[in-house]
C-alpha cells in the first residue's frame, strides 16, 4: 500500500511538533488534585501497651496544584481492632491549599487484655475530588495482664494439689 | 527357697527403679515440651483457638505432674517395703551388718527431690507462657 507524499509530510511535521513541545507544558495546564498522607518518621511500628493511650502523628500534604476542600479523615475498622479506641484530630479539614500540609494526631488505645503482636491501622483522607490512604503498624507489647494472674493461679493450684497428694498418699 | 525370694526382691527393686526413672524423665520431658509449645503460642498473635490449645497443654501438664507424683510416692513406698523385707532377711541370716538401714532414709530424700524437680519444671511450664503472653 502506497502512502501519498502530502500525508507523509503531515505525519513527519506532527511527530516533530510532538518532540519539540515539552511534556510538562501539557501536564501543567491540567488541574492536579492530589493529596498524600504519610506517617511521620519514628511513628511507624510504634509500641503500645494495652489500656494506655499512644499517639501517632501523620502529615496530610496537598501535592497537587489546586486547593482541596472538605477533607474527611476516617479509620478503617477491621476485626482485629475490635474494642480499640482510635481518635483523629482533626477529623476533617475544610481547606488545604496547594503545597501546604496539615499534621494529624491519631490517638490509639488498645483495650486491656489485647494479645501482643502487630496490628495494622489504616487511615483514609477523603475529599470529594480525591482520596488517599496510609497504613501503619502498631506493636502491642505485653503488660501485666490478667493472663499473668491466670498463670499464677494455675501454678498455685498445682502446688496445692501436689501438697494434698503428698500428705494424702505420702504416708508410709 | 530363701535365695529365690532374695532374687525376686532384687528383681522387683530393679523394676521399681526403672519405673520411677520413666516417671521422672517422662514428666520433665513433657513439661519442657509443653513449655516450648505454649511459649510459642503465647508469643504469636493470640486468638481463641490458640488459647484453647494453650489451656489444653496446661491441663496436660497438671495431669502428668500429679500422675508422676502419685507414681513416685507409690514407688517410694514399694521400695521401702522391699528393702525392709531384704533387711529382715539379712537379719535372719546374720548378715545385717553389711547393709546400713540409713539407706532407707536416703531413698526417701531422693524421691522427695525427684518430686520437687517434677513440680518445679511443671510450674515453669505453666507460668512462663502466661508471662510471655
Compute the separation of the termini of chain B in Å.
63 Å
Portion in strands of chain A: 35-45%
Shape of chain B: elongated
Q: Give a count of the beta strands of chain A, DSSP E runs of length 2 or more.
A: 9
State the total count of DSSP E strands of chain B: 0
Shape of chain A: elongated
Structural class of chain A: alpha+beta
Q: Number of helical segments of chain B? A: 3
Instruction: Kindly give the count of domains of chain B.
Output: 1
Distance between the termini of chain A: 114 Å
Q: Oligomeric status of the shown chains?
A: heterodimer
In total, how many domains does the architecture of chain A comprise? 1
Assign the CATH class of chain A. Mainly Beta
The CATH H-level homologous superfamily of chain A:
Immunoglobulins
Task: Return the CATH topology of chain A.
Answer: Immunoglobulin-like
Strand adjacency order, main sheet of chain A = 2-9-8-4-6
**Most extensive interface, chain pair and sizes:** A-B, 23 and 28 residues
Percentage of β-strand residues of chain B:
under 5%
CATH arch. level architecture of chain A:
Sandwich
Descriptive account of the structure:
The complex is a heterodimer of chains A (172) and B (133). Chain A has 172 residues and is of the alpha+beta class. Chain A has one domain (33-165): Immunoglobulins (Immunoglobulin-like, Sandwich). Helices cover 27% and strands 38% of the residues of chain A. In chain A, the strands form two sheets. In chain A, strands 2-9-8-4-6 form a five-stranded mixed sheet, with no helix packed on it. The mean pLDDT of chain A is 84. Chain B is an all-alpha fold and 133 residues long. Chain B has one domain (2-132). Chain B is 89% helix and 0% strand. Chain B contains three helices and no strands. Chain B has helices at residues 2-43, 48-93, 102-132. The N and C termini of chain B lie far apart (63 Å). The mean pLDDT of chain B is 89.
Amino acid at each position: 500500500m502506497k502512502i501519498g507524499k502530502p500525508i507523509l509530510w503531515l505525519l513527519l511535521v506532527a511527530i516533530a511538533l510532538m518532540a519539540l513541545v515539552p511534556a510538562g507544558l501539557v501536564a501543567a495546564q491540567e488541574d492536579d488534585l492530589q493529596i498524600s498522607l504519610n506517617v511521620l518518621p519514628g511513628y511507624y511500628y510504634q509500641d503500645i501497651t494495652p489500656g494506655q493511650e499512644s499517639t501517632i502523628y501523620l502529615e496530610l500534604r496537598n501535592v497537587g496544584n489546586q486547593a482541596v476542600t472538605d477533607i474527611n479523615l476516617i479509620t478503617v475498622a477491621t476485626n482485629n481492632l475490635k474494642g480499640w479506641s482510635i481518635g483523629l484530630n482533626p477529623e476533617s479539614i475544610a481547606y488545604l491549599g496547594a503545597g501546604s500540609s496539615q499534621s494529624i494526631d491519631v490517638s490509639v488505645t488498645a483495650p486491656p487484655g489485647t494479645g501482643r503482636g502487630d496490628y495494622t491501622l489504616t487511615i483514609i483522607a477523603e475529599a470529594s475530588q480525591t482520596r488517599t490512604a496510609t497504613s501503619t503498624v502498631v506493636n502491642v507489647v505485653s503488660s501485666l495482664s490478667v493472663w499473668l494472674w491466670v498463670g499464677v493461679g494455675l501454678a498455685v493450684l498445682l502446688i496445692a494439689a501436689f501438697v494434698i497428694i503428698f500428705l494424702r498418699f505420702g504416708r508410709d | 527357697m530363701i535365695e529365690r525370694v532374695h532374687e525376686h526382691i532384687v528383681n522387683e527393686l530393679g523394676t521399681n527403679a526403672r519405673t520411677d526413672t520413666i516417671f521422672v524423665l517422662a514428666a520433665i520431658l513433657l513439661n519442657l515440651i509443653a513449655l516450648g509449645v505454649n511459649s510459642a503460642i503465647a508469643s504469636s498473635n493470640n486468638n481463641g483457638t490458640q488459647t484453647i490449645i494453650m489451656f489444653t497443654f496446661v491441663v496436660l501438664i497438671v495431669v502428668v505432674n500429679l500422675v508422676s507424683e502419685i507414681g513416685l510416692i507409690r514407688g517410694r513406698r514399694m521400695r521401702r517395703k522391699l528393702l525392709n523385707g531384704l533387711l529382715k532377711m539379712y537379719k535372719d541370716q546374720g548378715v545385717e551388718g553389711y547393709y546400713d538401714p540409713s539407706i532407707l532414709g536416703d531413698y526417701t530424700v531422693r524421691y522427695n527431690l525427684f518430686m520437687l524437680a517434677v513440680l518445679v519444671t511443671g510450674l515453669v511450664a505453666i507460668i512462663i507462657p502466661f508471662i510471655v503472653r
